Amino acid sequence: MKVLVLGASGATGREVVRAVIAQDFDVTAFVRDPARLTVGGQRLRVVQGDVGDAAAVAGAVKGQDAVISALGVSRPLHADPVVVDGIRHTLHAMDEQGVARLVYLSFIGVRDSRSAAGPLIRFVARFPLRHEIADHETKEALIRASHCDWTIVRAPKLSNGEATGRFREGEDIAARSFFPVLSRADVAAFMVRQLRDRTYVRRAPRILP
User: Fold this and answer.
1) Can you name the CATH fold of 2-208?
2) Please, what's the b/e burial string for 93-118 (b: 16 or more CB within 10 A of its CB; e: otherwise)?
3) Percent of the chain residues topping a pLDDT of 90
4) pLDDT tens digits along 39-62
5) Using DSSP, how many helices (H) and how many strands (E) does the chain show?
6) Where are the domains of the chain?
7) Cβ distance 134 to 121 under 8 Å?
8) Do residues 68 and 120 lie in contact, with contact meaning Cβ atoms separated by under 8 Å?
9) Which pTM does this prediction carry?
């Protein structure tokens, strides 16, 4: 399987790249700054580009079997229209080239799942993170309206650390703590699993400790 990872040089994106390589898939890492991608491997191809560039995105999508998005905002706590455009460009390229599978990393604090997120996440989603949340909701709407076989993964606060395999998943689960936190490695493993697992196609599962 050939997999394109968007946002591959970010903290979560690097874990996704590692998880894809661990499955012996061919991975294309799409990054603005290749120097930030501290992951290597024989099955890794690095493509430099900006998601705001439709032609660059289309070139990266070409020949892929699936796309995983771990895109983050360029400035925390701010909206990032370029990233929204990047998802729009990605969906267009996938449609044009017949690439069906998309796994998108969202946040449990979006309105549709906020009530299950825990008190502190509910607070930060309404105030400090409101611009990032609005971006996620816009991107989710674009994805839901697309023709691709999407899965939107709604994760809590992310931390560094090794994968534990100890987490819950489902569309109706709720936080058991005031401020749920899950490792990026666990989230990456779950996202990569979706490439072969059809359980959550055109669904939005939550993943929580």
Assistant:
1) Rossmann fold (3.40.50)
2) bbeeeebebbbbbbbbbbeebbebbb
3) 93
4) 988 899 999 999 999 999 999 999
5) 6, 10
6) 2-208
7) no
8) no
9) 0.96
